[in-house]
Amino acid sequence: MGVARGFGCLVLLAAIGAAPASRGSPADLFGLGTRTQALAGSGAALSDGYEATYGNPALLSRVRMRQITLGWQAVRFDLEAEGDNAPGQVPADSLVGTFIGAVLPVPFGGLLEDRIALGLGAFTPSDLIARARLLYPERAQFPVLADRAQTLSLSLALGLDLGHGLRVGGGALALAELVGTVVVRTDATGRVGTIVDDQLVATYAPVFGAAFEFGDGFTAGATFRGALEGEFDVVVQVYDLGTLVVPELNISGVAQYDPMQLELALARRMGAWTANVGATYKRWSAFDGWRRATVECPSSQPDCKALRVEPVGFHDTIVPRAAGSYELELADDARATLRAGLFYEPSPVPEQRGSSNYWDNDRVALTLGYGVAMSEPLPPLRIDLAYQHHFLIPRTHEKAQDVEPGNVGHPRVETRGTVQVLGVTAEVSF
Amino acid sequence: MRRAPIAVLSLVLLCSAGAEAGPVDSFGLGSRSTALGGAVSASVRDFSANYYNPSGLALARGTDLSAGYVYVAQDLELNGRDSQVDPVHAIVGGVVAPGAIFMIPFAFGLAVHLPDDRLSRARSMRPEDARWVLWDNRPQLIYLSTNLAIRPVEWLAIGGGVSFLAATRGAFEITGTAVLPVEGQRTEYDSELRHEVDADLTAVRYPAFGITVTPNDRLDFALVYRDEAQIELDIEAELRGTVDATLLAVPAHYELSSTTMNAFIPRQLVLGASWLALDRLRIGLDVTWVNWAAYESPISRSRSALDVDINLPSFELPPNPKPTGRIDPGFQNRLVPRLGVEYRLPVRRRLELPLRAGYVFERSPVPPQTGRTSFADADRHVLSIGSGFVWAEPGEVLPGNLRFDTHVQWAILPTRVTLKDNPADTTGDFSAGGHQLGAGATLSLGFP
Q1: Residue A164 at interface with chain B, using a CB cutoff of 8 Å
Q2: What b/e readout covers B232-243, taking b as 16+ CB neighbours within 10 angstroms?
Q3: Looking at residue B26, what DSSP letter applies?
C-alpha cells in the first residue's frame, strides 16, 4: 500500500508543482515590431518608436510625440525531418499574437527639454504568456525554433539624447519563472496531506544601447542585451510513506533562454534611401540546456545512480544582417516606405550524434515591408506591414553506433523547413 | 492484472489553491487614492485612475508619472493564534499620457502593482484546516492594467481598458524506476526517474470601463464596471514506471487530472460622486456592488486512477477514489461603501499640504462555516489617513508640479466565531479576527 500510495504522490506532486515559464522570445527570433522585422531584424541603428525598447533604447529619444501602437502577427512553421525513423512533418503550433507599444517623451523643460523618452514594447501570443515544453531529449523536436516563439516579449526602456549626436538608453527585458515547493506527509489519521506553495516570480535582463549620428546621414548603433533565462523549479518533498522513501524530486528545467547578445549596426540615409548593415553576436555557449535532473545526488552520496543530464554543447553564433529602405511621397501629407532585408542565423546546436534529437538548422531569412505614414490634416496614423520568409538550410544528423536503432534520428536524419512571419501594426501619435 | 486504485482523494483535495482577488481591491492603488478610502472614482486623475475609473485619464491636466511603494502587515488570528498570513509589499506606479486626436481629448494610461518578491502565488492548504480564504493568497498577485480614455464633450469622459493575469494549464509525466532503499546497499537517490513537461502559462484578460459626468465645477459623478476574472490551474499528470523492491519490480501506471480555481476577481459595479464642498475641501463617496455570489469553490475537482500489475497479498490497495465535485461555497454579494475627505492646506504660494482621510466598510461575503469547509473571514472596517505635499513649478526642468503622497491604512477585522454543526468535525469550532496595517508613499511628476 505504501508503495502504491507513494507513486500516487510522485505524480500528483509533480503535477501540482510544475508550471511553465517559456522557451525563448519571438523578439529574438524575428525582431520586435513590423519595421524592425522588415529590416532584417536589425534595430541597433534604425529602431523607431516602441521597437527601440528592444532594438536600441537610445533611439527612443528621437521620438517627439506620444505614440501608441497596436498590431498583429502570425507565424507559421513548416518543419520536416526525413529518415528511417523520422516523422517527416514535425508538428509545431502556429503563432498568432499582438503587438503593443507605447512611447512617452517626457516633457521636461530647460536642459532636459526634448531629450528623454520612455517606451514600452510587447508582443504577446493570443492566449499564452509563456510555454514550457520540456520533452524527453530523444523525442523529435525543434526546441530552439518552434516552442521558443510561444512566449510574451516585454521590454521597458528609457532613451536619453546627450546632444552632439550621441544618444544612450537602457531598460529591462522581462519574463516570468516559477519556483515552489510541494510537501507531502501523512497526518495523524494516516491520510496523506499535501501543501503546495508555488510562486510566479519575475526575471529580468538588462538592455543597453548607444547611438551616434556622424553627419552625412550616418548613424552607428550598439545594443547589449543580457541573457534572459526563465526557469521553473519546483521541489517535491515526500515524507512518512512507510516503506517507500522518496528522494527530493526536482520538477525543473529552463523553459526560456535568450542568450546574451551584442548587436552592432551602421546605417546611412541618402535622400530617400536608407541602407543598414550589422551583426549580432549571441553567446549560446553559456546555455546549459533545458533539462535538469529529476533526482539529484546528495553530498553524502555523490555517485548515486540517479539519471544525469547530458550537456547540450551549444556554441556561440554571429548573425549578419543587411537591409535597406526607400521613401516616396504619396501626397503632401502622406509618405510610403518600402523595406527589404536579409539575415543569416547560424544554428547554435551541434550535430545530434547521441540519443538526443534537438534539431535546428541554419536559417536564411528574406524580409520585406511596406509602410504608410500620414500627417495632418490626415489622421496622425502610421501603418506598417512586414513579411519574413525563413529558409531552413537542410542539415543531416548522423547517429553514433551506440544509439538505439529505435531512436527517431537513427541512423541519420535530414531536417529542413520554412518559417513564414506576417505582421501589421497601426500607430497613432498624439 | 488486478486493478489497484489508490487512496489519493485526500491528496487531491489537499492540492486546492485558494481563491483570490486582486491586491488593489483590498489595499488600494496609489497613496492619494488609498488615503481617501478608494472613494475616488469621480475625482481620480492620476495613474490610479487605471483601476478606480479609466475615464479619469482623459480629465488629467497633463502627462503624469508616478512611482511608489506599499507595505501591508497582516496580523490575522485563528483561535487567538497568529495565522502567519504573509505581508504584502509591492512597487506601484504608472503613467497618464493625455493628448488629442482629431481635436478630441484622448489619454493613455498604465498602472502596475508589482509585488517585489513574486508576481503571484498559489498556496494550497488542507480543506479541513481553517484558512483566511480571502487573505492568504488574495493579495499576492501582480496587477497590470492599460487603458484608453476620451472626452468627447466637456462634461463627459469615457474610458476603458484591460487588466492582465495568468493561469496555468499543463501536462506532466514522470517515467523510470523508483527503488526501495536497502540498508547499506542502495538509497532512494539511486532511483532512475526523469520528467517531461508540456505546460502553458495562459493570459487572462478582464476589462474595465468607466464614465465620469461633470455637471458643474463642483460635482463629478462616476460609474465604473470591472469584469470578473477566474484563474484556473488545470493539470493532467501521468506516471509510467516501476517500483524496484530488489526481488520484485512492480509496473505501475498512474493518471491524474485536477482543476483548481486559483484566483477569483469578482465582478464589480461602482457608483461614485465627488463634491468640492469648499474651494479646498473635497468629499468623495463610492458604493461598490461586489458579485461575490459567483465565487467558485477553491477545492480542486479531480480524477485519479492507478493500475498496478501485481497479485501479491502483501500489496493491499484501497478502492479507487471517487472524483471530487464542485462544492458551492455560497458566498453572498455585498455593497461596499467608501468615504473620503481631502483638504488642501496652503503652506506657501506654490506649496500645498493635502490632508486626507477615508473609511471603508466591507461586510464579509463568507457565509457561516458550520459545515465541511472552514473559510475564515470577518467583516472589515478600514480607516485611512494621508498627507504629503504638492509643489507647483519647482523649476525650469519641471514646469508642472512635484507631488509626494503618503498614507497609512488600518483595517480592523472584529473576531467572528464559527460553531460547527457536527461536534465531531475535524476542524471544530474556531474564531477568526485581527487587523491589517498598511503604509505607502508615492512620488509623482506632473507636466502641463
Answers
A1: no
A2: bbbbbbbbebbb
A3: H
Return d(Cα A376, Cα A68) in angstroms, integer: 17
Query: For B370-426, what is each residue's pLDDT tens digit?
Result: 887 888 999 999 999 999 999 999 989 999 999 999 999 999 999 999 998 888 777
Written as one letter, the residue type at A266 is L
Helix (H) or strand (E) holding B118: none
Query: Cα–Cα distance between A246 and A253 in angstroms, integer?
Result: 20
pTM: 0.83
Q: Does B108 touch chain A (CB under 8 A)?
A: yes
Round to whole Å and give the CA distance between A349 and A145.
11
Q: Which tens digit of pLDDT belongs to each residue from B72-93?
A: 999 999 999 998 888 999 999 9
Question: B265 CB contacts (<8 Å, ≥6 apart)?
Answer: B20, B21, B22, B25, B165, B206, B226, B228, B229, B230
Cβ pair A109:B181 closer than 8 A? no
Closest-CA distance of chain B to residue A412, Å: 25
List of chain A residues whose C-beta atoms are within 8 Å of the C-beta of residue B8 = 5, 8-9, 12, 192
What does the pLDDT look like over B300-320, one tens digit per residue? Answer: 666 666 666 666 555 555 555
Q: How far is A265 from chain B (nearest CA, A)?
A: 32
Q: State yes or no: pLDDT of B198 exceeds 90.
A: no
Maximum Cα interatomic distance, chain A, rounded to a whole number of Å: 84
Q: Which positions 231-260 of A are in contact with B (Cβ < 8 Å)?
A: 232, 243-247, 249, 251, 253, 255
Interface of A with B in 360-389 (CB under 8 A): 379-380
Q: What is the ipTM of this complex?
A: 0.75
